[in-house]
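Sequence design from tokenized structure. All designs in this work follow the same two-part layout: the structure record, then the generated sequence. An example of the structure record is given first.
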């Protein structure tokens, strides 16, 4: 690891203020908002429709 090297950290955003974002990584870390990339979690489908059709 070298100074200035980009790294990927994953955590929940806890606060947004004046171009800065606070991310919870176990401890709160504040970074510039333009350096943060929003990634949404995968949510599986709810399964409201049946998986197979019934014979008629």
């Amino acid at each position: 690891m070298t100074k200035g090297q980009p790294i990927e950290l994953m955590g929940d955003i806890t606060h947004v203020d004046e171009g800065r974002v606070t991310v919870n990584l176990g401890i709160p870390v504040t970074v510039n908002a333009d350096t943060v990339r929003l990634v949404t979690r995968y949510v599986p489908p709810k399964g409201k429709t049946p998986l197979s059709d019934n014979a008629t």
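The mean pLDDT is 83. We note this feature because it recurs in several other targets discussed in the main text.
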